[in-house]
Design goal:
By secondary structure, this protein is α+β, with helices and mostly antiparallel strands. The chain folds into two domains: 174 residues, no CATH class; 189 residues, no CATH class. The chain contains ten helices and 14 strands. The strands form three sheets. Strands 2-6-7-1-5-4-3 form a seven-stranded antiparallel sheet. It has a five-stranded mixed sheet with strand order 10-9-8-11-12. Strands 13-14 form a two-stranded antiparallel ribbon. A hairpin with a 4-residue loop joins strand 9 and strand 10. Helix 2 packs antiparallel against helix 3 and helix 6 packs across helix 9. The longest helix is centred in the middle third of the chain and has 35 residues. InterPro entries: Cas12f1-like_TNB, Transposase, Transposase_put_HTH. Keywords: DNA recombination, DNA-binding, Metal-binding, Transposition, Zinc. GO terms for molecular function: DNA binding; metal ion binding.
């Protein structure tokens, strides 16, 4: 399994200037390749291949207008073209229906004002992690790295990233071997929500931390300070960085918390089942801010790849499965309930907590999906009471 390991790096002022040149050169090569393909399409010419774009970059280095492209590693420029090729492949696969999910837009031009700048070095660039802990990058130098943990294997590539907060990161791609955990008999269904971030089928509830809501007062003050600054001034640039750092702190805290929770769930359970929520649709409702603050998609993605890495079972239950309205004891499906109904009673006599009942139904549905004998996901037919039957004896035709 390919995994990414991110580490904070601290380049010197001279190394920051070299990285800025590399970011700019990669951006120019990407934009030149995109412009060449767009012009060829408008002129009715054949699609410009990657090999032709690579030859154009080599020829551009010999011209006075693009001679500064030779100041950076050639691998950085080739990887910029590879990113352009990947963007086109994703776009073509999306419009043809081969790529699932939302439609991917056509590649756009990169800007120097983009909040995120990145360059990538592959093994051909001969980057190296030195014995003293520094990262040697070609034509940049030995960069100081803060190693929070050791790399499990030799990295195949490294991406240097500068985020909106002005921080630098090194993202290593490592081929990691799966390490199965000892088997356990526990299985859990998880119902994700807003009041409680996760409700387990065993009754445990995890309160939603609401990191963005907790930082709302500070973010509001920083945004007000930013709005008072004159556009184009240095003070406005400093205020933008302060806002970006506050948002980065919220995102980092949420990610760290979700990593710890997902690791604990995968370690303690042999199988994990969650509901396939439509976060995009929920993001268009009045609860959009709370939905995005919860970060359900990121959390379920963590559960999925950690389950694959540690030999656990992970499954998603259909989003249209009536987990909330179904009785986990008798299987009866009741009418729709509003969000303010947190508990309900089934005609069979069972009293249910709304979220715990949904988690239990998600666990049962996940088990049925993975059952080799083809067990049904939906409950069996329940005879309706005589008072609710459609056909009455007095309305039946004669002879019946």
């Amino acid at each position: 399994m390919l995994l990414r390991y991110n580490y904070r790096v601290y380049p010197t002022s001279g190394q920051q200037d070299a990285l800025a040149r590399a970011f700019g050169c990669a951006r120019v090569v990407f934009n030149d390749g995109l412009r060449a393909r767009q012009q060829a399409r408008e002129a009715g010419l054949p699609y410009v291949t990657d090999a032709e774009l690579s030859r154009q970059v080599k020829a551009a280095k010999l011209t006075p207008e693009r001679a500064w492209l030779g100041e950076v590693s050639s691998v950085v420029l080739q990887q910029a073209l590879a990113d352009l090729n990947t963007a086109y492949r994703n776009f073509f696969a999306s419009i043809s229906g081969k790529r699932k999910g939302r439609t991917v837009a056509a590649p756009r031009f990169r800007s120097r004002k983009d909040n995120r700048q990145a360059i990538r070095f592959t093994a051909n660039a001969r980057f190296k992690v030195l014995d003293n802990g520094r990262l040697r990058l070609p034509k940049i130098g030995d960069v100081q790295v803060r190693w929070s943990r050791t790399l499990p294997a030799v990295p195949t590539s490294v991406t240097v990233i500068r985020d909106a907060a002005g921080r630098y990161f090194a993202s290593f791609v490592v081929q990691s071997t799966d390490v199965p955990l000892p088997e356990t008999d526990s299985e859990v269904g998880i119902d994700l929500g807003l009041t409680h971030f996760a409700v387990m089928s065993d009754g445990m509830k995890v309160t939603a931390p609401k990191f963005l809501r907790r930082a709302a007062r500070k973010l509001k003050r920083l945004q007000q300070d930013l709005s008072r600054k004159t556009k184009g001034s240095n003070r406005r640039k400093k205020a933008v960085v302060k806002v970006a750092r506050a948002h980065a702190r919220v995102a980092d805290t949420r990610r760290d918390w979700q990593h710890k929770l997902s690791t604990a769930i995968i370690r303690d359970n042999q199988a994990v089942y969650v509901e396939d929520l439509c976060v995009t649709g929920l993001g268009r409702t009045r609860l959009a801010k709370s939905v995005h603050d919860a970060g359900w998609t990121q959390f379920t993605t963590m559960l999925e790849y950690k389950a694959a890495r540690y030999g656990r079972t992970f499954a998603r239950v259909d989003r249209f499965f009536p987990s909330t309205r179904m009785c986990s004891d008798c299987g009866r499906v009741t009418d729709k309930m509003t969000l303010n109904v947190r508990a309900w009673d089934c005609p069979c006599g069972s009293h249910h907590d709304r979220d715990v009942n949904a988690a239990r139904n998600i666990r049962a549905a996940g088990r049925a999906d993975l059952n080799d004998r083809g067990a049904q996901i939906r409950p069996a037919s329940v005879p309706a009471p005589r008072s609710e039957a459609v056909t009455h004896r007095k309305l039946a035709p004669s002879g019946v």
